[in-house]
C-alpha cells in the first residue's frame, strides 16, 4: 500500500497571541466606536444631499408658500443655513453604545414631525408710505419703514411633516458589520 506522510507543526504561542489581540479589541471597543460614529456622521450628512430618509423614501417637499419666502437654499429641504446637517450633528460614546443625534432644538420636529401651536399675538407691521400718502401692501424691515400699524395675528397651528434624517439604512448596517470585522482583523494582524 502506497502512502505519504507529512508533519504539521502548530505554533500555539502565535495563535494565543492573535486570540489575545482579538480579545483586547473586543473588550476595548473605543476605537471601533469612534469609527462607527464618524461613519454615521458621513452617512447622515449624505442624506441631506439625497434628501431622503434612511429607508430611501424621499422627504416630503417644501410647501410652495414656505419655498417662496425662503431666502436661500430654496431647493434644499431641511437646509437654510446648514446648521442641522453640519455642526449640529454629533455622536457620543456612552459605554458600549454609540449615540447619534443633533444638538439643535428643532431637530426632533424635523425627525418625527408634529404640530407647532402658535398663540395669538399682537405686533407692529412695517410698511413704506409713498409721498402721496398711499401705503404699499408689502412688509418691509423696520429700518426701511416710514409707516407702522399694529396688527393682531390669530392663534394657528403649523404642521411639520416627518423628514427622518437619523437612522440606519440597510447599506449602513452592512458597513457597520464590515467595520467591526475590519477592526478585529486589524487587531489580529496588528
TrEMBL record:
> Which top-rank group of organisms is this from?
Bacteria
Name this protein carries in UniProt:
Phage virion morphogenesis protein
Tell me which species this is from.
Glaciimonas immobilis
Amino acid at each position: 500500500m502506497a502512502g505519504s506522510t507529512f508533519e504539521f507543526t502548530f505554533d500555539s504561542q502565535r495563535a494565543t497571541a492573535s486570540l489575545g489581540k482579538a480579545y483586547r479589541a473586543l473588550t476595548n471597543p473605543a476605537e471601533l466606536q469612534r469609527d462607527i460614529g464618524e461613519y454615521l456622521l458621513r452617512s447622515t450628512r449624505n442624506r441631506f444631499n439625497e434628501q431622503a430618509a434612511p429607508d430611501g423614501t424621499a422627504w416630503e417637499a417644501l410647501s410652495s408658500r414656505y419655498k417662496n419666502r425662503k431666502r436661500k437654499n430654496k431647493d434644499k429641504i431641511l437646509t437654510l443655513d446648514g446648521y442641522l446637517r453640519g455642526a449640529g450633528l454629533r455622536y457620543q460614546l456612552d459605554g458600549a453604545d454609540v449615540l447619534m443625534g443633533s444638538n439643535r432644538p428643532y431637530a426632533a420636529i424635523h425627525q418625527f414631525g408634529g404640530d407647532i401651536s402658535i398663540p395669538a399675538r399682537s405686533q407692529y407691521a412695517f410698511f413704506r408710505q409713498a409721498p402721496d400718502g398711499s401705503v404699499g401692501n408689502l412688509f418691509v424691515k423696520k429700518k426701511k419703514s416710514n409707516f407702522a400699524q399694529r396688527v393682531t395675528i390669530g392663534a394657528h397651528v403649523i404642521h411639520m411633516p416627518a423628514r427622518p434624517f437619523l437612522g440606519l439604512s440597510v447599506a449602513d448596517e452592512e458597513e457597520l458589520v464590515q467595520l467591526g470585522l475590519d477592526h478585529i482583523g486589524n487587531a489580529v494582524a496588528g
